[in-house]
Amino acid sequence: MPGWKYAFSLSREAVKAATPPGTVRLIEPITAVVIPEGGVTTTDRFSKYPLPTPDPADPLNWAPWRKLACISTVSLYAFVSNFISACIAPALPVWNLEFPEDQRKIEELMQFVAYNILLLGFGNVFLVPVANIFGRRAIVLISALILFISTAVGATTSNFVGILVVRCFQGFGSSASETVVPAVVGEMYFVHERGRWMAFYTAALASGSVVGGISGGYIAVRLGWFQVFWVSAVLAGITFLCSVLFVPETIYERGAHCLPIQRNLPRPSRYWPRTPAPYLSLVTLPSMRMTLPSRFRYTGELDPTYTWYQPSSSGDLSSSTAMTPTRLSKQVRSSRATGPGNFSYHPYTFSDSLKFGMYRGRIKYQFMKPWYTLRLPATWIAMLQYGGLVGAVAVISTIGPQLLILPPYDWGADTGLLFIGALIGIVFGAITTVLLADRRLKAFAKKQDHGYAEPETRLPIMLPALALGTGGLLVFGFCAQYPGEYQWIGLQVAYGMVAFALTQVPSLWFSYLIDAYNQLASDCFAMICILRGMVPFIWLLFVIQWIERDGYLVPFGGFTVIMGVFSLLIVPILWAGKRMRIATARYVVGNQ
């Protein structure tokens, strides 16, 4: 099987011509068109990947209003989840006023935030495999229901331990918003559309924390501690009802539209002579979701030692179980077909959209699959960068309001206004991602001889965001260390810089993982969210003591160094991301 040695022994021409999982033909060959005035003009045509089936129930075929309703609802779920997680941070000082008989230090009260974030990450170890077994719709509904019930219980709980337990359940109910939801978005849209819609989702995800931070303090001070939970419960209830009505099942069994897999790969030595690269070096894999035309198959010399799977006894590739595409179950065939033995489908109605997905089994395998994604380098890099940014936002959103209560600021109930800077950063982050992500992908594909679109094409867009996010931590630490009448402006700008990065970086990484690893994307998200929960949890546990001992500049300087190291990890992906996908392709294909 091809591995790291094979991938890095290929010439640049061979890598350019290779089509490992994630590389798709986005631009069709140029078509000649005769114009009336005489002469010939040429046009490019974008291909749709994955290839949609004839079935109206295929999420790729849904009407635009249905897609918009679905993505709006799951984005609302992401917004409310982060609103509930963040709104309690500026309300923490109210605890000792509301419950004078149960006085707590700020370090203890910060556990309400820390354990919520921890469960938000670790809950996906359970929820993602269950979503792969029973479907996305079931998990989104169950998670939204848990979020609603736990929040309503919190509105009637008045002891520290009880609130802490409620916060843990809120975190668990919010887990699917950062793993299952981006998978839903990826399953509804084509490759050339995912960038802007993923930006829409991540903007909602990030703005939930900001709006919660702005409003949480006001609600707690002016209406009381319990009203924070009642307002959150109303939002969670609305989210659950909308999810019941507007979030259909998005896992779709494509049957014969799954692509056969080419076993044999060209010998690395085939490319060392400086001769033109073959049309395809690795024949396109299942992530393209189309039937492979014979003219696209590599017909040169093959080496049986370099294969995706063990050799088959038959020369017919389709005879192997590894080559057999997923087939529609008899239940699905009978429910969707209008006649026996054909694939003529009836319209996809609203009542059809309320049905749950079918049981897929393989429980042990599904629970192990997320851990297999740790063999993919991109999972680690996305995990560290996203975890670092979430940790930065968690620390700033918790420390910032406590800082602005003190002189020379004395903002009182207005401490939530610190989040205005973050809101501006989120807006700019979302706009730039929407404008650049898909446009860059299409422009790159047009320049390529074969019209290929590569997942790495979008990643350079995040370089300024990573620099801003890292620098924002240092700016915040400096302004916090040296308070002054106008230093709050620096705090706002710093928070906006970090929020800009938090909006753009995960959006591009989520799109990359869906494009590169397809059905493994949600499993990658599960691993990413584990560290996304651990990093802020650890930082929040010791940051108060560190600040009390060394001030603000030293801790935030340390966070800056850590985030800077995480940011530099993008360089190997930009330099050799496609080689890495070639090296790890057997893991992706073997677990599709």
Automatic annotation (TrEMBL):
Spans traversing the lipid bilayer: 68-92, 112-131, 138-166, 198-221, 227-247, 372-396, 416-438, 459-483, 489-512, 524-547, 553-576
Subcellular location per the Swiss-Prot or TrEMBL entry: Membrane
Gene3D superfamilies, alphabetized: MFS general substrate transporter like domains
Pfam families: MFS_1 (PF07690)
UniProt domain Major facilitator superfamily (MFS) profile: residue ranges: 70-592
Record-given protein name: Major facilitator superfamily (MFS) profile domain-containing protein
Membrane topology: Multi-pass membrane protein
Source organism (scientific name): Podospora bellae-mahoneyi
